[in-house]
């Protein structure tokens, strides 16, 4: 009786469960999805997949094979050689290279610019993204110096495009990779230690994780199918409940997701999702997803975009899907330059760039300025007042209030080294106009009877450096302002 009852319960839930698995859902979350026994699920899915495969195989006509994709990427790299660089971030289980197209006027060079990444085909049976990403790359190349948005993106952003994260899953016409692991459940999770064993992680996941160590991405998006909505963090909740679970940057993410949905042909008209956007956990919680990991571990603001109700539509629908998504993709990337707060952080003791942290009061997340140029790029919802705080060990923190309008703002910081109570400069690792010998003499002076005199000397030097720096920063600000109308502040 009990058995019959639970069977009934299962079948009643099956349709709704299935609905959830359509887009981000999945096998690996069976531990957390609660009511469904994994063996039952396994066989049901297996039957589903076999019929599905034949259907998808027919549908594959008109889609690029993995071989076609590689050729298309190489051809793009040749045709648009002076605004692109082709590189691989690793290989799939079956040894297929994970090719990336970097698009920028200075590809491969580090610049004072934000970087954005698009990842397609995370799920093998969701191939629309990989097709659209090739169209996007080629459109940008064809319209550089002709279209203002294309030019803005190529000149001011480093756009990295990974058309397929899961080529093996694509050729197998299934969601998981060659080991049948759902890659969007394979990242370390903030609440559950499910993927903490590095050795058991999939090569595709490892490749993306080490990619984020090498390149500092400001924001990104992965492209999926099976629904029409822009999904933002958190994807999971601490207690596995299906509720709206806001991350610290909820306003920022709602803004970014809306940029996508409002620029889309009809995503924002969704009846199911207000405005065409959704918090991941309020739709259905997932664990081990790529999106939350990006935000937590790399300070990269990532969206999960569901770009077609049909996961694998007939190829003749691709041109329409491209038209529907084109402005969304362009505007999302351009929002990195057109909105938010940008700047650089220097030390006042000689204008050294500082790899400092930038936080916003009341928002528990920090981003870091780059090592090389100390530039930072902070996505933020426009139309609000923010207190921006720059911190660096060994330096006094500084903060400033800004009213962020619709346009981007430049806020540069000059941080002063901390002075201990006995008058010693802490961590003043730079020699400014002094060589290291004379600095040593100065430091020797400090604890002695003449330390007040020395302090005045130090102050004068610091002031001179400060004047010198202001000029440097003024020049940098002028450079940034070429991008567009921006207000500029030096703190
Ligand atoms: C790339 O080459 C084209 C044509 O030779 C030229 O118009 C364009 O300015 C070049 N772009 C860059 C970033 O050098
Ligand atoms: C998930 O379930 C499997 C067996 O059903 C178990 O071995 C594994 O430890 C579980 N994982 C977690 C994170 O609970
Ligand atoms: C968007 O347009 C497509 C194609 O006309 C249609 O199939 C889909 O149902 C529409 N979705 C919404 C949310 O209006
Ligand atoms: C800020 O977030 C971290 C985790 O990222 C958490 O450990 C900490 O408690 C949070 N602080 C506040 C004040 O919420
Ligand atoms: C001082 O400069 C010399 C060379 O001019 C260098 O070898 C030495 O390491 C420097 N010392 C410090 C403490 O920076
Ligand atoms: Zn998906």
UniProtKB/TrEMBL annotation:
Source taxon at top rank: Eukaryota
Gene Ontology MF, one: zinc ion binding
Keyword set includes Transmembrane helix: yes
Cofactor: Zn(2+)
GO annotation, biological process: peptide metabolic process; protein processing
Keyword set, alphabetical order: Carboxypeptidase, Glycoprotein, Hydrolase, Membrane, Metal-binding, Protease, Signal, Transmembrane, Transmembrane helix, Zinc
Signal sequence, renumbered to the chain: 1-23
InterPro entries the UniProt entry points to: CarboxyPept-like_regulatory, CARBOXYPEPT_ZN_1, CARBOXYPEPT_ZN_2, Peptidase_M14, Peptidase_M14_domain
GO cellular component, one term: extracellular space
Family designation: Belongs to the peptidase M14 family.
Name recorded for this polypeptide: Peptidase M14 domain-containing protein
Species, as recorded: Nyssa sinensis
Taxonomic lineage from the root: Eukaryota, Viridiplantae, Streptophyta, Embryophyta, Tracheophyta
């Amino acid at each position: 009786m009990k058995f019959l009852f639970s069977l009934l319960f299962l079948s009643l839930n099956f349709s709704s469960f299935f609905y959830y698995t359509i887009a981000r859902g999945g096998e690996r979350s069976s531990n957390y999805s609660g009511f469904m026994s994994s063996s039952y699920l396994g066989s049901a899915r297996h039957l589903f997949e076999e019929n599905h495969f034949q259907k998808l195989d027919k549908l594959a006509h008109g889609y690029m094979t993995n071989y076609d994709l590689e050729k298309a990427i190489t051809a793009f790299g040749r045709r648009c050689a002076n605004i692109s660089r082709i590189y691989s971030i690793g290989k799939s289980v079956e040894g297929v290279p994970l090719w990336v197209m970097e698009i920028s006027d200075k590809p491969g060079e580090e610049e004072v610019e934000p970087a954005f990444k698009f990842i397609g085909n995370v799920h093998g049976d969701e191939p629309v993204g990989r097709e659209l990403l090739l169209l996007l790359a080629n459109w940008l190349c064809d319209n550089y110096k002709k279209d203002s948005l294309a030019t803005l993106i190529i000149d001011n952003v480093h756009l990295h495009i990974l058309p397929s994260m899961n080529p093996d899953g694509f050729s197998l016409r299934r969601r998981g990779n060659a080991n049948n692991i759902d890659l969007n459940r394979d990242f370390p999770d903030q609440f559950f230690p499910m993927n903490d064993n590095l050795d058991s992680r999939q090569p595709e996941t490892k490749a993306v994780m080490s990619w984020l160590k090498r390149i500092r991405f400001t924001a990104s998006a992965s492209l999926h199918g099976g629904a029409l909505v822009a999904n933002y963090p958190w994807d999971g909740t601490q207690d596995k409940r299906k509720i709206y679970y806001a991350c610290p940057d909820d306003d920022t993410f709602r803004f970014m997701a809306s940029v996508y949905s409002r620029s889309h042909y009809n995503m924002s008209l969704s009846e199911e999702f207000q405005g065409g956007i959704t918090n991941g956990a309020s739709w259905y919680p997932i664990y081990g997803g790529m999106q939350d990991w990006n935000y937590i571990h790399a300070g990269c603001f990532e969206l999960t975009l569901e770009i077609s109700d049909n996961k694998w539509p007939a190829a003749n629908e691709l041109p329409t899907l491209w038209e529907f998504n084109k402005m969304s993709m362009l505007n999302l990337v351009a929002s990195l330059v057109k909105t938010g707060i940008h700047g650089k952080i220097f030390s006042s003791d000689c204008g050294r760039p500082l790899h400092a942290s930038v936080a916003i009061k009341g928002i528990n997340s920090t981003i870091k300025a780059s090592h090389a140029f100390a530039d930072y790029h902070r996505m933020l919802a426009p139309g609000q007042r923010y207190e921006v705080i720059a911190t660096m060990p060994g330096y006094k923190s500084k903060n400033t209030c800004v009213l962020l309008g619709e346009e981007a703002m430049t806020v540069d910081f000059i941080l002063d080294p901390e002075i201990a109570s006995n008058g010693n400069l802490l961590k003043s690792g730079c020699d400014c106009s002094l060589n290291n010998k004379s600095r040593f003499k100065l430091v020797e002076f400090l604890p002695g009877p003449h330390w007040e005199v020395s302090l005045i000397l130090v102050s004068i030097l610091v002031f001179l450096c400060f004047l010198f720096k202001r000029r440097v920063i003024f020049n940098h600000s002028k450079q940034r302002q070429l991008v567009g109308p921006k207000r500029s502040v030096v703190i």
